[in-house]
Structures are given as C-alpha cells and as structure tokens.
Design a protein that fits this description.
260 residues; alpha/beta; Rossmann fold; 25% strand; globular
C-alpha cells in the first residue's frame, strides 16, 4: 500500500515544522557525540526541526538538505535569524555538499523512504571528515509493531486499521540491514540503541485529535480517507481520558558509526 503524502506540495509544507525537540532526544545525542563547535549535515531535514536542535546542542554550523523545495522553503522561514543554519535542496544519495565538510551527518526518518542504504551511507561518508560520526534514526518493524497505550498513540493506528501496520512493516528498515550497510560503507565502532522519544505534549485529547485530523507529521495517516481518519480519532478517544494531558512517545532505533 503506497502512502499518498506529497512532500513537494505546498499544502504539506508545514507538516514537519511545528514540533519542538524534547530533552530525551538531546540527551541521547550527547551520549553518542559531542556536538560542541561541530559542523552538522542534517540530511532529509524536512522543516528543519532537528537542524535547529543541533545548534541548540552547540553545533557551530548546520546545513540542512531535503529533496523537497517546499520543505527547504519552510525550514528557511522557520529558522530565519539563525546565522549558523543554511538549507538547500538536494538528494540524500547526491547532496551536492562538499566532501569532508561535516563532522556529524544526521539522518532522521529518512532511510525508510529509500531502497539503497549503501548509496545513502556512502554519501554520508563522503561528507564526513575522517573520524566523523554518522547518526541514523528511524523505526524498525519491531518499533512500529508495539501495542497502543496512552503514551504510544501510534500503536492505536494499527489496532484500528491493521492494513496500516502491513504498510509500515513493509517500508521500515531491519536493524541488521542498516548495520551491515553502514559497515560496507566504511563505518566502524558501530552502535545501535533504542529511544522512547517524546513526540509532543497536548493539553488534552482535543489537542491530540486536532493534530491527528491534520495528519501533522504522520505520513502513514495519508493512507486513510477523511472518514477513516475520523473513525481513528474516535477510536483513540475511547481509550484516553478526555481532559487529561497527553504525552506522545514513539520508539526509535538509532544507529551510529565512525568514518574509518
């Protein structure tokens, strides 16, 4: 089942630009690499949320790359006034950035859109100085298949519409495949960890419901009709208290390696 989101459409340009990065993600990044005074290439940057987060961690310069001109436009707009961030349109397999121009290459929620991990990681290796760090963050089939709960809202998607889980499993990277591709692409000291990353905090279910109906930052929901999406919101609403805060978390796998 193909997902119907168009990342090039102006209507979707803010879909991946409206969140704030939470401390749990920042803490994990600091445990993997020291960002202070480093040059970061954020490949598949979307609306630039994590590009900005790297500067908050102390990076000296961040270059965000995305294949969508609309995403690049949004990221540039959202980060206006940050002198140490630039954005440009480019392909993850051929970014157009100079060789050995980065100390850290970060790729979040990117590789599940790709079929050639080796080419992606070779390009990351080209961008990195020797000893530089590649950090890849995505969900594996095991991550997405976890059951729904008041914290893991995404699990309810698949309980309500099992066909969505089939689509997710088909497009998500196997952990061992990512590790092997990193190794073949010249990365050593490989490390794989998981993180429950806080996605967003809502004052109550109404806030979550509005976010879901807008399909904000959730490409999987573009596989549902409007009627099905309303059905999903009602399904989740029956499982959550109406007036209590909602803290969404998703489990991610993070792979890292050093350019040898």
């Amino acid at each position: 089942m193909a997902l119907s989101i168009d990342f090039h459409a102006a209507a979707n340009r803010y879909s991946y630009a409206g969140r704030e990065v939470q401390p749990d993600w920042a803490a994990l990044m600091r445990s993997l690499v020291d960002p202070a005074a480093k040059r970061v290439a954020d490949i598949g940057c979307g609306g630039g949320i994590y590009s900005a987060a790297w500067t908050d961690l102390g990076a000296a310069q961040v270059t965000g790359v995305d294949f969508s001109a609309e995403m690049v436009r949004t990221a540039t707009e959202k980060n206006h006034g940050r002198a140490n961030i630039v954005f440009r349109q480019g392909d993850a397999l051929a970014t157009g950035l100079p060789s050995e121009s980065a100390d850290i290459v970060f790729e979040r929620a990117l590789i599940h859109h790709l079929t050639d991990y080796d080419a992606c990681f070779r390009e990351a290796g080209r961008l990195l100085v020797r000893g530089g760090q590649a950090i890849v963050q995505d969900r594996t089939p095991e991550d997405v298949a976890l059951p729904g709960s008041p914290e893991h809202i995404r699990g309810y998607f698949f309980e309500c519409f099992p066909r969505l889980l089939e689509a997710e499993r088909a497009r998500r990277p196997a952990s061992q495949a990512v590790e092997h591709a990193l190794g073949r692409s010249g990365f050593g000291a490989l490390r794989t960890v998981t993180i429950w990353e806080t996605r967003k905090r809502h004052d109550d279910f109404r806030g979550l419901g509005a976010d879901l109906r807008g399909r904000v930052g959730r490409s999987i929901l573009h596989a549902l009709t409007d009627a099905e999406l309303n059905q999903l919101v009602e399904f989740i609403g029956q499982r959550l208290p109406a007036n209590a805060p909602v803290v969404e978390r998703d489990r991610w796998t993070v792979w890292s390696g050093t350019k040898t």
